[in-house]
Write a structure and sequence with these properties.
Elements lengths: L5 E5 L7 H9 L8 E5 L3 H18 L4 E5 L2 H5 L4 E4 L5 H16 L11 H17 L4 E4 L4 H11 L3 E4 L6 H9 L6 E4 L2 E2 L2 E4 L1 E4 L2 E2 L1 H18 L12 H10 L2 E3 L2 H4 L9 H8 L11 H21 L5 H5 L8 H10 L3 E8 L12 E9 L2 E4 L7 H24 L2 H9 L7 H12 L2 H4 L4 H7 L10
Parallel strand pairs: 1-2, 1-4, 2-3, 4-5, 5-6
Antiparallel strand pairs: 7-10, 8-9, 9-12, 10-11, 13-14, 14-15
């Protein structure tokens, strides 16, 4: 017998997460009797997800109940778990910001951003609401920025936070590509979120790194010449990933190979295609992102068709196999002692050497009723620490300080350091335009920040 729980899903209108969560809960017998509250400010999407969830559970015969609300406090009431997937600005506004930076100021794709202020504010608001409403609940943070946001929430509140990401599944992709069974591979890839490195890759009891080297030497060039990505994020075995392996000494996993946007891989679309392949040049291009967003939009349209079709057979359409996501198995482990081994983002507390205890790291963990117990993974090579991990940590600390103080000169510092920035004045002008875009200004109180730091508009003193 299992134990029922109450789950609040924040940002439930997500095209990527909510239905997968519903399916996994429906297929987890030990969570039968649980109640899920969907919360989103987009009433249209919220209604679609609610209808699909209730229909899928009913058709499958799953013992679950659901409700939906636009009130975050209501979603948190009596919750045992809170899953946050919300994205404040959304893909449309994000695209407008990129287009402004490109068309007026000459940045390519993702240059000139002013950081994750909106997401950090939402994350901290959710965490503080949980302290007030459901202080014993676990927050499973599934929306970016996991590294910055989880560090912020665990420092500023007392709630229990476990951040999750998809990136580690790149280990399975490596195994599949080089022709070995992923199920027979034991791996370890610690670091920071979107900055994890394959320290252990064991196949049938032996170090399998030589198999990667052999594939690179005998099949790499042919693969890079002929491989056509079917997904925008299909870059795990790209020329760029292998080049980073040779530069840093360990294989980068998942978003690691594109997260820091090393400038030499991203100067233009031809360069991006050279390093990350056809047809998009990786996920961070003016070709890939619109395609990715269009797929999400098509998925929402498909969900709507299913929701309004009384004859839709959802178990057939959605499938009856669990996803690979970790959210529900972790809930089951914490609630019902169904022990499992997971890749998580939690405060370091000595798990990864060389990083402060209060910084959230991405490491393997054992999860059971005792909690989320990170494993001590030792240290990463000095080259990776000094060139990848420590710079990323300092970037995070700067962003959190900018968020907490409202110091826009710190946001300007990040824009000035972008290799695409042409001069000081253009960086100032871009930042000012981005902050005052109507879609951004209407959801932020930028006046506070302007009162704190207004001198960023003027040339630096000599």
């Amino acid at each position: 017998m299992g134990t029922a729980v109450k789950i609040g899903i924040i940002g439930a209108g997500s095209a990527q997460f909510s239905l997968g969560l519903v399916k996994d809960i429906c297929l987890t017998e030990s969570l039968r009797g649980s109640h899920i509250t969907f919360m989103d400010i987009d009433e249209g999407r919220l209604d679609i997800i609610y209808k699909l969830a209730t229909k899928y559970a009913s058709q499958l015969g799953a013992d679950l109940t659901f409700d939906a609300t636009c009130d975050r406090s209501a979603a948190l009431q009596d919750a045992n778990f809170v899953v946050s997937t919300a994205y404040v600005l959304g893909h449309v506004v994000e695209a407008k910001m990129r287009n402004l930076a490109a068309e007026k100021y000459g940045y390519y794709h993702s240059g000139g951003s002013f950081g994750s202020y909106h997401q950090l504010r939402l994350m901290l608001d959710v965490a503080r609401d949980m302290e007030r409403i459901c202080p014993d609940a676990w927050l499973i943070q599934s929306g970016n920025p996991v590294f910055n946001g989880c560090t912020l929430m665990t420092r500023e509140t007392g709630i229990k936070v476990c951040g999750l990401c998809h990136g580690h599944y790149g280990c399975e992709e490596i195994a599949h590509t080089i022709g070995i069974d992923p199920a027979k591979v034991t791996w370890q890839a610690p670091g920071l979120n979107h900055n994890i490195w394959l320290t252990h890759f064991i196949y049938e009891g032996k170090n399998a790194y030589p198999l990667i080297d052999e594939w690179i030497a005998t099949q790499g060039e042919e693969y890079w010449r002929t491989h056509i990505a079917q997904r925008t994020h299909d870059a795990q075995m790209s020329r760029g990933a292998v080049h980073q392996y040779h530069m840093f000494g360990l294989f980068p996993i998942g978003d690691t190979l594109r997260y820091r946007l090393w400038w030499w891989y991203h100067t233009d679309i031809a360069t991006k295609k050279h390093w990350f392949g056809e047809p998009w040049g990786g996920p961070d291009t003016h070709l890939a992102r619109p395609f990715f967003v269009s797929q999400l939009e098509e998925r929402i349209k498909e969900y709507h068709r299913w929701a309004v079709d009384p004859k839709a057979d959802l178990p057939q359409l959605m499938g009856t196999q669990k996803t690979h996501e970790q959210q529900v198995p972790i809930m089951d482990g914490l609630t019902n002692n169904t022990e499992g081994y997971f890749q998580v983002n939690v405060p370091n507390q000595g798990a990864l050497q060389g990083i402060p205890d209060d910084v959230v790291v991405e490491v393997p963990a054992i999860v059971n009723q005792k909690g989320v117990q990170p494993l001590r993974v030792g240290s990463l090579p000095p080259k990776i620490m000094f060139e990848c991990i420590l710079p990323d940590w300092l970037d995070m600390e700067r962003e959190l300080l900018a968020f907490k103080t409202g110091d826009r000169s710190m946001q300007l510092f990040e824009t000035l350091n972008n290799h695409q920035t042409r001069n000081y004045d253009s960086a100032v002008a871009l930042l000012d335009e981005l902050i005052h875009m109507p879609e951004v200004a209407e959801i932020e109180d930028w006046e506070k920040m302007e009162r704190i730091q207004d001198y960023y508009k003027y040339p630096m003193p000599l």
